[in-house]
């Protein structure tokens, strides 16, 4: 096997620190060389106890460190574009947390820069593609197990939303996972979005349109409906039912242990994505490291990141303006076909 | 207890013959006095072995038979209005199979005729209100068990559609059950309809828009989405999930016996509504007979029948024209408040 | 159809009054002619509002009433034998609540009296044979759906036991249902019993051996294990898993509605058998009435009642003495082959 | 963090080769230094592509290699004792695949040798303790979530047994997992065993007593029943239901994806333990490596290995002789209290 992959981690917030810990403790074949964060103390805290890891305020300085063979981008959205372009310049494989960039236009610039380079270097962190259940559903669909898929019914529920969430964030941040999952599961592009607004829950912060029912149409005529409800109160629940011409398949509904007590047969619902998708994050980073060590890039591409951003932007317009909004996708460069 | 209720059954087709059998064998306190069907032989076959039951080609002649204390209307849709008006004239309690009449305008005439009479005589055959699971869900919602309801997700799937089904029939016949169930569960009126058209299944007859995703908005801001798929191939499945401000509740998904064999843990899905709703039909007719013997009428009213028809007509317009169609309901007479 | 069946109901306690109500309101083709109970006031209360029903303190006087065409025995156990022999004398079809008689010896006397008469008149009230799920399991086993059955795993759980329950009652009353169900599902006789005694639950009354694990062996080598736990606290739960040579099948575990709230996906467990087996009782009595009107007797026979009693007695000996106790069955009269 | 742990893997059969692969690819902080197998070619094949790993026919030679800091024993059962004693001699932490040794007497010699040394070095490979569902059940029991446990109902089913399986192997190999799981979940010792023999399945090899119902009693009065059925034909299924004084809890029954097709709602049952327990093996070895690097030993101890062996031997006697066999455990050395 080739030698250990030296990784520069950009961003030492919640996700960044989590990836540092993951690379150090759960991923074979990689080590953290450097961590960059404008808040150097935060970067230092993230690497405490890891031995010789250099800390920078400037991400470009981190990329320039000797021994850096790959980059993990977990900085704030608006910092992604510069970091990604720099990594492309240096020919470094990148795993970028979602979103790829702060808006669709920036994402498209990244796509075009990578396309100009002529080889794929960027993977986007849509970790559901590494979840065991999603993979099982994908395998079933690809094998024709329920015939051609016609509908996806998705639920994305959180106990409560963070303070900064706006009605648009429900689409651009939460539903963006479903956008990628739908594109991936179906192998189709999303062409139009409609957002239906039920009465807002009294449990949601004032002014927040929560829940929403978001409808996607694809270029092959499938329909995807997503209930997003980020103040559902009762648990973190991500489910997906695919309905095909000869059957349906559903994932995400049955946590394992059944407890009978006090007149109820109960299953616990996880509180957050850390419980539900912990293994998916591990698998994602392991796969990325294994690929990078062999000079390959797999997983969701920069194009996937751009397409998700473009669809999400159409979704936010549909939310704000009402009615159906068509998605205006750029032409797909040959690199991503 | 009062004496046995003499029932005139109008229509000796599948539903009519089934009701004759039910009244004779499964319902205490009622007996079939007469059956009318333009095809007298069919009427005769339906009452074979039941002793002294008179048979007519003309429904009005049946209503005039001595001993008739109530009417069960199971004739074709276009014959309902005349029969219902005649029953109202005679002051007879009626159980009318759905739809109340052949269109919303006719249904409204029936409503107004009953309202003029000043007392309720008509019950419409929306039998889901008598299904154990629906009743449990209704009780939970009424008790505030999941907070104020915001969304209903409904699935209505049949193995295969009968030959006469058109794209509009999916709404006017199949989805009409969900229209009534939603109005009843929520205690709200439907104010607008949108129909989303996925690619049609290759398993559906050519030209049939199947499946459809039908969206309803209510006067309290709840959203109801219905997947109707009448050629799903795999079974008869009617499910409903209510999502409220503090929880969700779902019915209809778990047939009872789990069989493990050949690498699968399996539950059988019923083939048709006869299996799924057999008990509901029995309960419906028993409740109607019990009420009629005490001079009362309960269950879904003529107004419910009219409202379902008006919503379904808006749905068919939405299907044909695209976009969102508002429901134009007449004013509700005081009798139904 | 023949005329309505006149029924004498013996015993106006909880079960008797329930059967009176059932015959009057839920069963077509029968009417209650007379009710007997040593407590005439209780008998009178049971028939209030039913019109002309005669009331007796003496069961034999009730049997002698004109118009009595069948007998439903719901009196205390020790009164069964005399009532059953009297009904046999008069050639009346009988539905006897379980147990058939107060002990196996008395049950055997009833069996022999019926056998002498040369035709079956007695049905025993093992109502599980009329439960939809049990019938589905029976049909699966008979069709060879899981191959030859090798094991039955049964659970019989009650929230709390009535005051009169002794350790032996758990077997003679609760487990007697599993004894009949196992004999019926497998079509085999039970040949030996072992009772394993876990530590008693602190929630059970002092001195009560609860739970118990009761093991049955059959003449075809199948093993049946029954957890009986009548103070389980959390609900009424009766489940059965059959394990065969090519698969397994389980019933009784999944009540219908799933409610998500407060971090849990929950299903309600019924509180008692009235909820769980209400429909089975209705079906049982309807089937008995329909048979009786055609001069037939179906369902569990007097032999089944005797065999259950004999097995239960062996079980109580096994409970008291420890170890394995063989069941000593009398020879089966030809009438029951 | 301390430096990477050098591991000697003894045995390059199925399990050994799997552990080599696991250490190389899935476990951070360890590397394989040497592999020993009497079949040197097999050892060589296991380490192909791993770089500088030395290969031996003699396990003791492997232990003597420089850089060996820990030992993973995956050799045949009869070779365990010598390897374990040698590792103890050298003060090396060991992960030994189950069983600890080829019989209880040998296991006890290992226990005593470790006890003489005065510190724990040995962990036994009962990997269920690292399975997410088992851990959840353990946490629930420890938290008193269902009150004091009274019964465990276990199922251990395999599609088909390997050729070398005897009736005794069902207990000593398959059920040994349940023995450890029960001791661990309950925190109690097993004091007696009874084996009930249903008719053997026609699908099992001639002469094999399969299935078996194995009953354990514990020193706190709990009862454990285990259905072991290693030719069940339909899948690999390991389930456990704990019944306590105030509720029950069950794990292992609900694989994730539900597919509806052809009249069935189906869940796939895994084919073998590799699917079901893959993550548990990974977690086990990761935990062992992490502990060893910090000079600790956790997980199931040599005493657990000995106790499982002693209970299994009593079980085999119970199988052969019939009746109830008491477990004769040696006194537990202070090291394991």
UniProtKB/TrEMBL annotation, chains A, B, C, D:
Domain Gfo/Idh/MocA-like oxidoreductase N-terminal, first and last residues per copy: 6-125
**Alphabetized InterPro entries for the sequence:** Gfo-Idh-MocA_inositol_DH, Gfo/Idh/MocA-like_OxRdtase_C, Gfo/Idh/MocA-like_OxRdtase_N, MI/DCI_dehydrogenase, NAD(P)-bd_dom_sf
User: SUPFAM superfamilies given for it?
Assistant: Glyceraldehyde-3-phosphate dehydrogenase-like, C-terminal domain (SSF55347), NAD(P)-binding Rossmann-fold domains (SSF51735)
Identify the enzyme class.
Answer: oxidoreductase
| UniProt KW Kinase keyword | no
Which superkingdom is the protein from?
Answer: Bacteria
Every copy of the Gfo/Idh/MocA-like oxidoreductase C-terminal domain together lies at 138-327
Q: What is its EC number?
A: 1.1.1.18
Kindly state which reaction or reactions the protein catalyses.
myo-inositol + NAD(+) = scyllo-inosose + NADH + H(+)
PANTHER family annotated for this entry? INOSITOL 2-DEHYDROGENASE, PTHR43593
Q: What does this protein do?
A: Involved in the oxidation of myo-inositol (MI) to 2-keto-myo-inositol (2KMI or 2-inosose).
Give the family per the record.
Belongs to the Gfo/Idh/MocA family.
Name assigned to this protein = Inositol 2-dehydrogenase
Q: Which organism is it from?
A: Streptomyces silvensis
